[in-house]
Amino acid sequence: MTAFDPPEQLWDQVVQQLRLQMTQATFESWIKDTMLLSNEGSEWQIGVKNSFAREWLENRLKPTILATIFHLTGQEVRLEFVVVEEVGEPIPAQAVISPAERVNGTHRAVLAGPQVAAGDTTITLPDFPDGGERGSGLAIDIRQLNRTGYQPLTNYYPLFVEPYLQRRWDTPGQKAYALWEKVIALDGQQVINNSRFCNWTRPVTYSLKELASLLADTSIQDLTGRYGYCWQANEARHQGQPLAACCQLYQPDCRFESPTCKHWRLGILEVLSLEGVQMVEETGGRKNYRLTSQFWRSWPILTPHQVEYLPPNLQARHRDWLATHSRVTGLTVQAWSKETSASAIEEFTDRQVGRECQQSFWRNPFWQKERL
């Protein structure tokens, strides 16, 4: 990929790389519907759907986007995020995007071409249903949960976060919480009333064997993820009647190669990256591989979407917890029930403070194939 590729192809590749570096919720909320308006020289204009998205990208994700563009093109650029407006028709497939023009003091994305006059056709991206930022009221710092005298609220994590991870991701989720808990405890900055407190742990470099040793009965493959084989396909093969097609049990993360059908079993590190509480840098090769990791200390309050994974009794207990502690958290049950985001992990205001690792850990080949 070079800076001379067609604009739509150029930005599409940037977007696909950004998808791999953040949680799905962050990608869906802020990156998925962006578009490249122009890339003249080192000046890039990116179209976004509203002022909230512009501020979020400018203040929080801009360094990641710049690093990704440099990685793909070798070019250092300056980014400007522009709110685009709706006037009618979507962008034609062969349209050339020109720089956004200022109309009545605001930016408008304008299509360029011999048949299109400036300002005649503009484009838009859908706004949030409620017109505001998602999940911001759920990003409650661990220091706030502990600022409660003799009854600190950090029991929220083992009461609700741990069972959520276990119910959603099964054994890898349960072990992901155990690994997160162990690493947080080992970090030297764990005193939360320290003025130099940082929500990201300091970067620590491990071999996968060292990292696995932090948990009982955990292998390297438990950390990274591994292939599993469909029991139905195996049983049918042993009976002399191999399956003619995929059994569909593990779609879309599986591949059928008669007479076998294999799928991906999620790893502990993949769960932590999916939940947004771990960032990594990978170095070395097969024989000297090292993983430098940072872990995020503060889990947000679970969203209604996440709470649905809990059993009914824990769902009721979660609502009781919210009602009991609303004065401390500033979050009422009514406000919580209106949240529509998948996760609030990216809503913390200090997500970039102290963060040195920039990658998510991912090994699932089906996930990459599907999205790349």
How much beta, percentage-wise? 15-25%
Which radius of gyration do the C-alpha atoms yield?
23 Å
Strand order of the largest sheet: 1-2-3
**N- to C-terminal distance:** 14 Å
- The sequence of SSEs as H and E is HHEEHEEEEEHHEHHEHEEHEEHHHHH
Q: Count the helices. How many? A: 14
Overall, the morphology is: globular
Q: In percent, how helical is the residue content?
A: 25-40%
Number of domains: 3
Main sheet characteristics: 3 strands, mixed
Mean pLDDT: 75
Structural class: alpha+beta
**Total number of strands:** 13
Multimeric status of the protein: single chain
Write the layout of secondary structure elements.
Layout: H1 7-19, H2 24-31, E1 35-40, E2 43-48, H3 51-73, E3 78-83, E4 96-97, E5 101-103, E6 106-108, E7 111-112, H4 142-146, H5 156-186, E8 204-206, H6 208-212, H7 220-224, E9 226-229, H8 231-238, E10 254-257, E11 260-265, H9 268-274, E12 278-283, E13 290-295, H10 304-307, H11 312-324, H12 326-329, H13 333-337, H14 365-371
Parallel strand pairs: 2-3
Antiparallel strand pairs: 1-2, 4-7, 5-6, 8-13, 9-11, 10-11, 12-13
Helix pairs in contact: 1-3, 5-9
3D architecture notes:
- The protein has helices at 7-19, 24-31, 51-73, 142-146, 156-186, 208-212, 220-224, 231-238, 268-274, 304-307, 312-324, 326-329, 333-337, 365-371; strands at residues 35-40, 43-48, 78-83, 96-97, 101-103, 106-108, 111-112, 204-206, 226-229, 254-257, 260-265, 278-283, 290-295.
- With 372 residues, the protein is α+β, with helices and mostly antiparallel strands.
- It has 3 domains: 7-112, GMP Synthetase, Chain A, domain 3 (2-Layer Sandwich), CATH 3.30.300.180; 136-224 and 274-371, no CATH class; 226-265, no CATH class.
- Strands 1-2-3 form a 3-stranded mixed β-sheet. Strands 8-13-12 form a 3-stranded antiparallel β-sheet.
- Helix 1 packs across helix 3 and helix 5 (156-186) crosses helix 9 (268-274).
- 31% of the residues are buried.
